[in-house]
Amino acid sequence: QAHLKKAACARPGRTVRFPWCLSTHFYTDNWENVQNFQARPDDILIATYPKAGTTWVSYILDLLYFGQTERQTSTPIFDRVAFLESTISPMGKDLADNLPTSPRLIKTHLPVQFVPKSFWEQNSTIIYVARNAKDNMVSYFHFDRMTRTQPEPGEWSSYIHRFMEGKMVFGSWYDHVNGWWKKKQTHSKLHYMFYEDLSEDTGREIDNLCSFLGLSRSDEEKKRVASGVQFDNMKKDDTTNYSTHCAMDFKISPFMRKGKVGDWKNHFTVAQSQQCDEDYEKKMKNSTLQFRTEI
Ligand code: PPS
C-alpha cells in the first residue's frame, strides 16, 4: 500500500488544459466516474477554491459529527474526508463510495457548474468556504511550491498575474467564489462561510454551522471543538497536518503554514497590491460578495 502510494505521486502532475482551467491529470483522470458519482441526501459536501480553509472546516465537521473516536485519532483527515475528484492515493471517488460514516464528509474544489448532478438531485448539504483573494493566492503559491500534484508556481511576480488571469488548477478564483455565491441565492442547503470569519471568532462560526445543520451540541462540546481546531493544535496533530501525505515536501513549506488573515502583506509590494486591487474592482464590480483582507 505504502509502495503504491509513493508510486502514485512520484512524478509531478502532468498539466491538462480544460476549457475552463488549467489542471493536472490528478484531477481529471477519473472525470466520468466523478461526474457520475452517486450522492446521498445525508452527504455533506465541503466545497472550496483550493487553500480557502477546506481542512479547517472539514475537521470542524468531523469533530461535530463524530467526536474524538479511535478513527479520528488514528486515520489521517484525507482518509476520513474524501477528496472527490482526486486520483492521488487515496482515490477520492472510491473512498467516498466506501466511507463508513453517516454523514459522509466529501471535499471538492470543483467550480459549481462541475459538481456531480446527483448532489443537487439528492439535495445534499453543502458547505462552501471562501477566503480573500490575496491570502488565498499566497497560500496557493506556497502550496504549489511544495506539492508534486501541482504545476511549479514560478516567480511570485508572475504567479500573481496567472492568478488574476484565472490560469490556475481549478480555474479562476473570481469565477469560483462568485459562481458558488450565486448558487447560494437559490439553494437553501448551501451554507457560505468565510475564512476570515472563522479566524475572527471560531466559536461563533461553529454556532452558525450547528444552526444550519440542525445539530444540537452542548456549549462544552462546541468549546471542545473550537479548541481542537485551533491552528497550533491542528499543526501538531499528524492526522490533520498532512505530514503523512505522499505528495508534499514540508522542507519546502508545511501544509499548515501560517493560518493567518493578512499574511499577503508580507508578500505583495505596494505596486503589486495596487494592481491586484484595480483588477479586483473590475472583476468583482457586479458581485455583492464582500471579503475582508484584514481583521
Ligand atoms: S487544500 O489543500 O485546498 O485542502 O488546503 P486548505 O485546507 O483549503 O487550506 C490550507 C490553508 O488553511 C490554513 N489552515 C488554517 N488556518 C487557521 N486555522 C486553522 N485551524 C487552519 N487549518 C488550516 C492553512 O494553514 C493554509 O493556509 P496558509 O495561509 O497557507 O497557512
TrEMBL record:
GO terms for biological process: catecholamine metabolic process; xenobiotic metabolic process. Its EC number is 2.8.2.-. It is found in: Cytoplasm. Its main location: cytoplasm. Residues 41-287 form the Sulfotransferase domain. Keywords: Catecholamine metabolism, Cytoplasm, Transferase. PANTHER family: SULFOTRANSFERASE SULT. Belongs to the sulfotransferase 1 family. This is Sulfotransferase. It comes from Sander lucioperca (Pike-perch). The lineage of its organism: Eukaryota, Metazoa, Chordata, Craniata, Vertebrata.
